[in-house]
Amino acid sequence: MTTSKRILVTGAGGFIGGYLVKQLKQEGHWVREADRKAHEFSASCADEFSIGDLRDPNVVREVLAGVEEVYQLAADMGGAGYIFTGENDAAVMHNSAAINLNILECGVQARIRRYFFSSSACVYPKHHQLDPAHPICSEDSAYPASPDSEYGWEKLFSERLYLAYMRNHGAQVRIARLHNVFGPEGAWRGGREKSPAALCRKVAEAADGGEIEIWGDGEQTRSFLYIGECLEGIRRLMDSDFPGPVNLGSEEMVTINSLARMIMEIAGKQLTVRHVAGPAGVRGRNSDNRLIKARLGWAPSLPLRSGLEQTYSWIASQLPSTQR
Ligand code: NAD
Q: Which DSSP letter does residue 303 get?
């Protein structure tokens, strides 16, 4: 039987945080949410909901009061169109680092016992991800460091910050490097969406026989983790005695062109792909699940297609019927 805990989820107005709150409530915990905005797609089921800017230490002190554990998912974040163009670099680094610095420093006073920190596959060096067929993403390959984006550098800095606070202040931390999480109720338009959602939207909007655009030549590879397995991995890691950092991702690596084809098959549409210049990120990336299997005895296994079916049908349902 689970012992009920008092838990804070930061970034709960976002995609993964929103699902995590539901999961923790189902498990019987008392949950406070914190975000600067309410969730766009579903009503909160948390015991308390606090709207505020976590870059402000006064806000952070308030939301930490009386909780034992923190799941820290708040970050200035988006898909390639947000984090790889260079236009948002200062904001991404400043905002996310400020949130993590505040959470940990105020957490010492609040006597937080355990943290989950959502790091990213973007920490891995770009020179290990030049070959789309054989990217290297084992956890120990993160150093010597050379991430391809400032978003990745901030995650690497914050991983070290959490580990330093664990060493010097005694709280437990658990760190997962998430690899491209997708599913219903994630950003799907507006510039912060990631490739599965963006492609689902483009395919849903196109008339059969029409055309969609893909950034770059589409031969870059990635793997995509369905939200249900992301939650399962986070909860397993948090309940384990392993701090990480550990990859949490799928090992089903596909090119962006084949991802697009899979979505067209699900939609039952035949579309032409036009490749256009755009921020495409590293050439290859895949999760390496040896460590998670060894330490948690578990790894994601859901086929990409089944997660895409759920996601496509949700995104298509968000469009006005005239645009599907
Ligand atoms: P998201 O953008 O949907 O959620 C992040 C939330 O943080 C948003 O609701 C946003 O309003 C909130 N936030 C940002 N700045 C804030 C501030 N100053 N004060 C209060 N709230 C603030 O992102 P997500 O996809 O749910 O990702 C959650 C976490 O997982 C992030 O830390 C992200 O970097 C990490 N991650 C996600 C993925 C992925 O594929 N989704 C991959 C790797 C890592």
A: -
For atom 1 of ligand 1, the residue with the nearest CA is 14
Using the atom order of ligand 1, give the atom closest to the CA of residue 121: 43
Cα–Cα dist 114/192, whole Å:
30
Give one DSSP letter per residue of 21-65, joined into a string: HHHHHHTT-EEEEEESS--SSS---SSEEEE--TTSHHHHHHHHT
Cβ atoms of 137 and 128 within 8 Å: the answer is: yes
Q: Which residues make Cβ contacts (< 8 Å) with residue 79, sequence separation at least 6?
A: 187, 191, 192, 193, 194, 195, 197, 198
Give pLDDT tens digits for 114-157.
Answer: 999 999 999 999 999 888 989 999 999 999 999 999 999 999 99
pTM, to two decimals: 0.96
Ligand 1 centre to CA of 75 (Å) is 4
Active site residues: 151
Select from 77, 82, 116 the residue to mutate for testing ligand 1; criterion: most ligand atoms less than 8 Å from CB: 77
Tell which CATH architecture fits domain 183-222+252-282+302-318.
Answer: Alpha-Beta Complex (3.90)
Our mutation pick for probing the ligand 1 site, out of 8, 9, 10, 16, counting the most ligand atoms within 8 A of Cβ, is 16
> 165 — phi, psi (to 5°)?
-65, -30
Locate the domains of the chain by residue range: 6-181+225-248, 183-222+252-282+302-318
pLDDT tens readout for residues 196-253: 999 999 999 999 999 999 999 999 999 999 999 999 999 999 999 999 999 999 999 9
**Topology (CATH) of 6-181+225-248:** Rossmann fold (3.40.50)
